[in-house]
Amino acid sequence: KLRDIEPPEGIGSFTVIGGEHEVNLSWENSGDVDYVYTTIVKRTDRFPGSPTDGSVLYIGTGTGYVDATVTDSTSYYYAGFSWDGTNYSTATLGSTSVMDKTPPAGVGSFTAIGKMGKVELSWSNPGDIDFGKVEIFRSTIDFPATRTGYFMVYRGTGTTDTDTQVTNGITYYYTAFTYDRVGNIGTASHATATPGIDTPPSAPGTVTEGYFDIDVTIGTWTIFWGAATDEESGINGYELQQRINDGEWKTIRDVAGNVIGVPSFWGSVGNVYYHRVRAMNGNGMWGSYTVSDGIRVVNSAEFVQAGSLKWITMDRSGININVSGGTETGVIAVSHKAVGNLPFSLLGKAYQVAVINETNEEIQPQGSITLTLFYPDPDDGNEEADTGYRIYWLDQNGWKIVPGKQSIEPASNQITVTLSHLSVYAVGIPVEGIMVYPNPFNPGRYADHTMVIFKGWNGYAKIRIYKLNGELIEEMDGQDMREWVPSADIASGVYIYVIDVQGGQKSSGKLAIIR
């Protein structure tokens, strides 16, 4: 048996080209008849001396390979070997270096703010994984386009710097260059500023009216805020403004000096008062406002902890609240509420009941709340009529009867319900409904159509009749009811009637007249 001791021909035309983050290798395989495959090996310190002397990248019969397992700025040494099944050829060698040619991104949000005797610079660094540093240069003529011939303000990896080697009144042009770790330069970013220009003071610190922002006494309260700052000219004073509910902001006090509290005078119960403060510096420049979360003026309030059992009582002619265990921590607040457009006859007052958290936001209870409302009896002695009274609540769509059992005690003039949702509540007498008849009004056909009758309410009402285009044609008063004889000059057509009952009840509809 003969043994093959002749090694195959080595690979030919072996080229090794270093790219960006990769090395491209190509070759020609041996032309020997007993050629089997090619092996490619690499090292980083020297050329491989054998097919096992290094990292084996490739074994096969192809003629090219892309080595992506490389690091930028590193030299690599490759060797290729042919194999005939018994022997390896001698090594064919090639080497290259991998170079990073991609520049990093430029800095972001590059700003320059001129102040007295200085320029404050700020920026954000790029997120490139190979980010190396930032260099900032300046000029008094134009933005530096290169890194040579200009004053270097900053070099490093931070995001802020203060240039104090400036002269007030001169405009400075700044250019920021970014670099990666191999020296590639990113896109230049520019900013300009003129020192010596006064800047507004900072906004004041937190504005507050008190813990939980609940006030049960109409009168004076002290507003507090954190002091503002101004490096150039100091703080000359503050402006305090107030807004009631969703109304307009109005100035209520100018405060001289760096004072942190002044009295504010409340208005009526049931309103939420908001405050905002801004500072003026020594050169007369105003800063930004800081706004409070508001203070709510109520008739009565009680701090409630989770799991507690508390009563809040205004008076025997008003409202009682029993807070059961599990109610969310906060303040139970009660205030009178002005209401209108009621679908019932109001007895007494309407009350807004709310749980208020630390930031003066209304939250809903986690446990049940027992609400008792007291009402003035319009016909004291007729206790049977009291059984028809109900507690109503107000939501975004209007007034509704509180669902569930309503316990009525005519002898003490009170109604009790259990709630799981807080709103505005009132005791009322359900209205059967306002009637308008005959409708249509047709005196030419029916002999008994001599007048139109409006009825179905208790007390005084104002009645208005409009054309469809909004023109008022009749206005009249009525106590419990009203009779109306349309004049002969009122033509056939469809009209709109609006009935406003004293106490808030309102009704409207269409009335047809046929001549």
Automatic annotation (TrEMBL):
Coiled-coil stretches noted in the UniProt entry, renumbered to this chain: none
TM region(s), chain numbering: none
Protein known as: Fibronectin type-III domain-containing protein
